[in-house]
């Protein structure tokens, strides 16, 4: 839910944003036993063992072996499995959580993203956490030009060689002609985003295994159309969230038919690697 924090801050002003518990429609998971007034992105939750039975699949190594709540390791990330107490259904929730500490002997977790939210062209692996960091840095550039990001998603385009990351943005502006008035701003956003990605991405860019990042600005209402498509396919309107990474051909078609401007990062491949 990290993508919604800036919007909440925009509308709430100086009001504190408090996340007191971690839950889904399947079960309550845990509570915030630390500082309730901490930043939303820093919030950790203590999973309560008598709410459901929790298991974890390590995201790195482990060969898919399941780990019990008592055996998780500090600093490690896991996929969350939950068996609720009502129907005894064992469910893969789809969240990736990271162990941040312990409350007494109970581990505390921070939600860092969603499973399978991954951009990859070569050996790069850009997860939801890095993607949100890049988006949030670029949003600061937008806001300096009185622009507001309405929604975004991403796509790993391998239709050409080398493949490259594509970021779809819907943006609100004071002026109608976004492309002509704000070209410099969007190009700077591309540079800022590329500079945020990890060393493996930088390595692939420097060796031209990955092409320059591309930003495609879409028309007003495009992401509403994307939501309507998902709902028409059976998605619940109450549970719908814009996917950070899109793979649906129909969804991509909705986005592509509404593209009003395209911008490519001007970062030279030979200068990508940081000193």
Automatic annotation (TrEMBL):
Give the family, as the similarity comment puts it.
Answer: Belongs to the IAA-amido conjugating enzyme family.
Would you tell me the Gene Ontology cellular component terms? cytoplasm
Keyword Ligase (UniProt): yes
**Under which name does UniProt file this protein?**
Uncharacterized protein
Cite the GH3 C-terminal domain residue spans from the record: 131-250
Organism of origin is Brassica oleracea var. oleracea
Q: What InterPro entries does the database record attribute to this sequence?
A: GH3 (IPR004993), GH3_C (IPR055378), GH3_M (IPR055377)
**Boundaries of each GH3 middle domain copy?**
45-114
Q: Name one GO molecular function term.
A: acid-amino acid ligase activity
Q: Which domain of life is it from?
A: Eukaryota
Keyword line: Ligase
Does this UniProt record's set of keywords contain Acetylation?
no
- A Pfam match: GH3_C
